[in-house]
């Protein structure tokens, strides 16, 4: 089992905001980077392209919105559509994000952040959780976490 060396980006793609996280080149620790607002989609896509160019990740791990039973939620199609529009040659993988936002709220509350403070940064913290879980999965299994972003025509 080998762990691939290289920086990765984590994305929590929401309908209003996209949380962005990055890890170190050794894939040990995920940290929050920023929150990209989706009010202007072309601007959001440009901002993500700039972040990708700056960090030069070996892959992007985007949260895959799922229900508790594992089925795709309504938000899944919108998140997949947005992920496909990110202008990059970097592979994008989808990873289970169940409980990431709840976990993010809980960790921020435990850190003493108010409800208002949490609202502004919870998406970046959720991206950290998505990325950290993916890193741990790869470290434990020796295989990249999640699944490749499916092409448009193969969506169920």
UniProtKB/TrEMBL annotation:
Pfam families: RuvX. InterPro entries: RNaseH-like_sf, YqgF, YqgF/RNaseH-like_dom, YqgF/RNaseH-like_dom_sf. Residues 137-156 are annotated as: Disordered. Residues 6-104 form the YqgF/RNase H-like domain. Its main location: cytoplasm. It is an enzyme of class 3 (hydrolase). It is found in: Cytoplasm. Its EC number is 3.1.-.-. Keywords: Cytoplasm, Hydrolase, Nuclease, Ribosome biogenesis. SUPFAM superfamilies: Ribonuclease H-like (SSF53098). Belongs to the YqgF HJR family. NCBIfam families: RNAse_H_YqgF (TIGR00250). PANTHER family: POLYNUCLEOTIDYL TRANSFERASE, RIBONUCLEASE H-LIKE SUPERFAMILY PROTEIN. Could be a nuclease involved in processing of the 5'-end of pre-16S rRNA. This is Putative pre-16S rRNA nuclease. It comes from Brevibacterium ammoniilyticum.
